[in-house]
Amino acid sequence: MPTLTAQSVRGFLFLFCLLTLLPAASPAAPASDSPRMTPVVRAVKSVAPAVVNITSTHIIEGQRVSPLERFFGPGFSPGFPPGARPGRQKRVSLGSGVIVDGQKGLVLTNAHVIAGSDEVMVHLLDGREFSATVKGAEPDFDIAVLEIKGARDLPTVRLGDSADIMPGETVIAIGNPFGFNHTVTTGVVSALGRTIRNDSGVFTDLIQTDAAINPGNSGGPLLDIEGVLIGINTAVDARAEGIGFAIPINKARRVMADLMGQGRVAPLWLGLMADDVDSRMAMALGLREARGVLVGAVFEGTPAARAGIAPGDIIESINATPVRDRRDYINVLRNQTGGESLRLSLRRGEKTLALDVTPTPFDDATAQTFMERRWGISVQESAQGPVIRSVRRDGPAAFLRKGDVIAGVGGVRIKNMAELLQAFRKERLAGQVLLQVVRDGRGYYARLVL
Fold first, then answer.
1. Are 285 and 313 in contact (CB under 8 A)?
2. DSSP 3-state of 129
3. Whose CA is closest to 424, among 382, 391, 377?
4. What is the DSSP code (8-state) at residue 207?
5. Is 188 exposed, middle or buried (0-12, 13-18, 19+ CB in 10 A)?
6. For tag attachment on the chain, is the N or C end more exposed, with fewer CB atoms within 10 Å?
7. Is 378 part of the annotated catalytic residue set?
8. From 112, 182, 276, 328, active-site residue
9. How far apart are CA 223 and CA 216, in angstroms?
């Protein structure tokens, strides 16, 4: 058995250290024609750099007061930075987004991802982080547009056409579920034209997919097998596995154009008045259930009049989305974009009709004129908020006075005319509306019965 000399030991140690310090060889990437390079892999490699993780921070001012403040007075909080309060907290939410314009640094995401945020940060696949500003957000469509500060020539996803999506085709979702960056899931298009309802309203024309979409995926891209953006992931159904939804890219693109062009999506209307179909009315009309809205009046020169809708018609669905009552009717219209024809299913006597109607923008001037007719009040802007200019004596608001300030509608705070008109659009068909009114510096509630 050979003996080890001091020289051989030193040589062995030198060789061992040399091998340890040498960089490890990088694994060879699969060849482009390798069967491992599937269409999904190619799509992910192409699009992943354009997918961003979004961190939204909201500062919550707590109401707690430290014992030292109770003794020494407000503001005495040793150990906290100047201006800080013991009850101040940060709420951080995670989401996803996708860069749709790399030159301008524009990102599409969900409105609920950045709702109430004081600071928004985006994180790229290559490790870079940037602050972002909210260029516009529309909760009715759950779409928001961010602009990345100080970054240009960013990777960009290709925008597709969601009009030719086929049920059964393969789709890919990339996002930030539970904080796991750039997670990839695959599935198929389960169905098209889905409608979901929640406390915020009605979301129509959604893509349903069984690709896994979890909290944190919101705002991320839904891609086809070629790596083209066909939807923005927006929601999951907590009642079952394998049911997720995405906003079609054609609708998201139109909402984005309105947000960038005019700061909001123009509300729409058909130009009619309607009432709920109650049980007695359903029985009188021979309906099996009390559902839909009964057209009470159609205004001249409006889309409803041009389409041939008449008083007495019952609107049962819009674009195959069932209309249950007046509020449902308003919410379905709020989730439509301008310039597109809607298919209405109507019941007229014993017949069921299908009519196509293209809604028109419900602009502020039209809303103000209609509010004077419906609520019987004329309102103008003031430093205190919307102030009543005149009241129709035979109208539902005859108890109000000139100079009263409208501070709230239906529990929603109102600060200016734009917010009042937006609230009126939402409540225009309601049978009762609760107003918060300020008169001579004192607030009270008043109910309009219409």
1. no
2. strand
3. 377
4. E
5. middle
6. N
7. no
8. 112
9. 17
Residue 326 in contact with residue 275, Cβ under 8 Å? yes
What residues are paired with 391 via a beta bridge? 377
**Tokens representing residue 257 in the block:** 């154009």
> Which one is catalytic: 190, 218, 317, 345?
218
* Numbers of helices and strands, H then E, in the chain: 10, 27
pLDDT per residue as tens digits for the range 39-68: 999 999 999 999 999 999 987 765 554 444
Q: CA distances (Å), 186 to each of 145, 225, 318, 332, 353, in order?
A: 25, 10, 31, 30, 40
What are the angstrom distances between the C-alpha of 183 and each of 127, 194, 353? 15, 25, 47
The yes-or-no answer on residue 218 being catalytic is yes
Neighbours of 4 (CB within 10 A): 8
Helix axes 417-427, 326-334, angle to 10 degrees: 130
Residue 73 has pLDDT above 70, yes or no: no
What are the start-end ranges of the H helices in 353-416?
Answer: 364-374
Predicted pLDDT of residue 19? 47
CA angle 37, 41, 43 (to 5 degrees): 125
The residues near 347 (Cβ < 8 Å, ≥ 6 apart) are 285, 287, 292, 313, 314, 316, 353
Residues 211 and 186 sit within 8 Å (Cβ to Cβ): yes
CB 387 within 8 A of CB 410: no
Q: How far is the C-alpha of 41 from the C-alpha of 170, rounded, in Å?
A: 13
Catalytic choice (142, 258, 276, 328): 142
Domains of the chain from N-terminus onward: 158-262 (2.40.10.10), 268-361 (2.30.42.10), 365-449 (2.30.42.10)
Q: Residues for the chain: how many in total?
A: 450
Q: Are 407 and 437 in contact (CB under 8 A)?
A: yes
Tens-digit pLDDT profile for residues 276-286 = 998 888 888 88
Amino acid 343 reads R
DSSP string over 304-365: HHHHT--TT-EEEEETTEE--SHHHHHHHHHT--TT--EEEEEEETTEEEEEEE--EE--HH
- Token pair 């359903």: residue: 282
pTM confidence score: 0.82
> How far out from the chain centre does Cα 205 lie?
14
Helix segments in 153-262, DSSP class H: 249-262
